């Protein structure tokens, strides 16, 4: 399964399929913060194919790395003479950025991308359009959560 193939990252707990339960999700301190995203992904997982569940995870898997790399490179370009240690000293998301620009996460992105590519092989045009629909929906829900966090 997809989640089993993603390397364990420091500070990020990805429960296995057997470990997932409503109790775990409700007791998680992150559930309230991410509930729209969780609900969307759980709905896809409960009502659609395993491939579409992978697609629903893709905006976070691929997007977080891209966003962190952009933030990091823009900050480094804006302050080329600033040592890396102090570049993000005042940024409240420094740990988030460091996690998502790290080599472990790059490997998770690579594995996830390969799984998506392999999963899409042989899909009909309608099946791929459904996958795009799921990806767009998951992206919108994730963006909505980040917009709420900015307030």
What does this structure look like?
This protein is mainly alpha-helical and 151 residues long. It is 74% helix and 0% strand. It is elongated, with a radius of gyration of 17 Å. The termini are far apart. 12% of the residues are buried.
The CATH class, by name, is Mainly Alpha
β-strand amount = under 5%
State the CATH superfamily name.
Heme oxygenase-like
Classify the helix fraction into a percent range.
over 70%
Shape: elongated
* Major β-sheet annotation: none
Structure described in brief:
It contains eight helices and no strands.
Features:
elongated; 151 residues; Heme Oxygenase, Chain A; mainly alpha
Topology overview:
Elements: H1 2-5, H2 22-27, H3 31-47, H4 50-78, H5 84-87, H6 94-101, H7 103-120, H8 125-150
Helix pairs in contact: 3-4, 3-8, 4-6, 4-7, 4-8
């Amino acid at each position: 399964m997809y989640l089993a193939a993603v390397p364990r990252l420091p500070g990020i707990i990805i429960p296995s399929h057997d470990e997932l339960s409503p109790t775990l999700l409700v007791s998680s301190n992150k559930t309230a913060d991410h509930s729209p995203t969780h609900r969307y992904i759980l709905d896809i997982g409960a009502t659609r194919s395993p491939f579409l569940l992978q697609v629903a995870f893709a905006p976070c898997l691929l997007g977080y790395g891209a966003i962190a790399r952009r933030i990091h490179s823009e900050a480094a370009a804006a302050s080329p003479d600033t040592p890396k240690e102090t570049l993000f000293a005042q940024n409240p998301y420094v740990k988030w950025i460091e996690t998502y620009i790290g080599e472990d996460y790059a490997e998770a992105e690579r594995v996830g991308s390969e799984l998506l590519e392999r999963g899409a092989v042989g899909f009909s045009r309608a099946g791929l359009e459904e996958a795009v629909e799921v990806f767009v929906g998951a992206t919108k829900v994730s963006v909505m959560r980040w917009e709420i966090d900015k307030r």
